[in-house]
Amino acid sequence: MAEREFGRRQLLRLGIGAVVVLKSGGFGLAAADDPPVNPFGFGFPDIAPVGPTPEPTPAPQAEKIEKYKVGEFFNRGDPDKNYVYLTYDDDYTPRAVWQVINTLEQYRNQGFEVHVTFFPAGGAIGQDKGLWREVIARGHKIGNHTYNHPRMDRVSYQGLKNEILWQEYAVADALRQENDVKLFRPPWGLVTNNVRAVCRDLGYKIVTWTGDSKGYATGATVDRVVLTVSADLKNGVIELMHCNNFVDALATPRILETIRARGLRPISIPEGIE
Cβ(171)–Cβ(179) under 8 Å? Predict the structure, then answer.
């Protein structure tokens, strides 16, 4: 009954006449191999078709990094503190996510406390819901990266609002509880006026990044990723990584060794910035 009530509350938040099928244990979402549309079955023409993920554009620079306001963006933490933030986007390869969290657990078992932040898109959630419960159980955080991964300059205010709420619902459905993290990472790091307005209205802070591992790039190798990230690592850095393949996942142990050797602390984004 609690899960059914949760589902009703989420639908009311959407403010739309959605019709979904109530399955045992909660509402059912679109399967991982369904077309990239919203999980509630009604048309949404504002979203551009989802195709191969292009190389992200450079994230915009935050004007005042000391302020982390709802509806505003930031691209790094406090440069006076020895925190660094590893973030993993999209996460369409569950085995790569498992490899990352298992690597992190090995270091934690050695006494090196490490937490990261994942920004999965909607299709990644449905592939392995138990994975995301394990991510939370191990002390990591999950942010919002939209449901269909549209470009922010091609989506309307209402379209983006739906995207964020659909993803909220998908994550909550996987976790079997509401996600208390209110961080939004816009696909490709594009911060538009609509992004600011929607995040302000929904209570989200917008996070981009300081450095980019480029593990998604054609010809990327573990050695190249390690060199790229190592050059970025300093106080307050937010590093963009991905779990769409295994390059960043395989580079993670060596990146953690560099972080530890430099006396830095890898923590999840909500820590140290609120």
Answer: yes
